[in-house]
Sequence to fold (248 residues):
Amino acid sequence: MINAPFQIHQAGDTAIVVEFGEQIASQINSLVLDYSEQIGALELPGVVETVPTFRSLLIQYDPDIITTADLVSSVESLSPASRHKSPTRRQWTLPVCYEGDCALDLASVAEQLGMTVKDIIDQHSAMNYDVFMLGFLPGQPYLGEINEGLRLPRRTSPRLRIPAGSVGIATSLTCVFPSQTPCGWHIIGRSPIPMWNMDQEQSPLFAPGDRVRLEPIGLSAFERLSLAVTHEGFRLSPDHGSALCLAH
Fold:
């Protein structure tokens, strides 16, 4: 763990931002999640919530209960040396189909990188990804970091619409888009598992700090899981293989 310095900035009159660096990198994101966890453990009166991002932590607070100076002092008293493993850190296996219309850009990505489609799938699904943050769309997980051999800039021509569950890559990240949206990422797969469901208590499927492994499935398994989600209310749980058993 790097002992990176941080800077604290005021964000309006009810929040501060703690910045740990300027890059999207696993070490920096680990610091963000570490401080988010430590702030939560302090249970400071007046702290409303913490929102981790790639490289910074937003802390929202009620200034009628806790002053900015007291909150900043509490943050400055923490140290990454006190980092501990979170008991809530979860491991997931997310089924992803890399075939047919699920993989809009897979052939193009393989051509750009001078690799076979199988190589792309093997490398993309071989990693155990960290959930860096949720954002842009409700429940949308940004996963990192992808293998260096798979890194590409975003598409020069964004699509006006991609389907929910699309799995894309761009720069050092891979992302699962929870709903239909315009998108400039390279879409190489699609998952049948919803990332967000307003009708269930735990709306976002993943949380920052979780780990996700991607499991390739075929089109028939994708269709079976899609039906199970739609008609049976199936929801993925942290690793126990239930989705894969159903898929196969």
Q: What stands out?
A: The radius of gyration is 19 Å. The mean pLDDT is 90. The first strand starts at residue 7 and ends at 10. The chain has two domains: 7-82, 91-247.
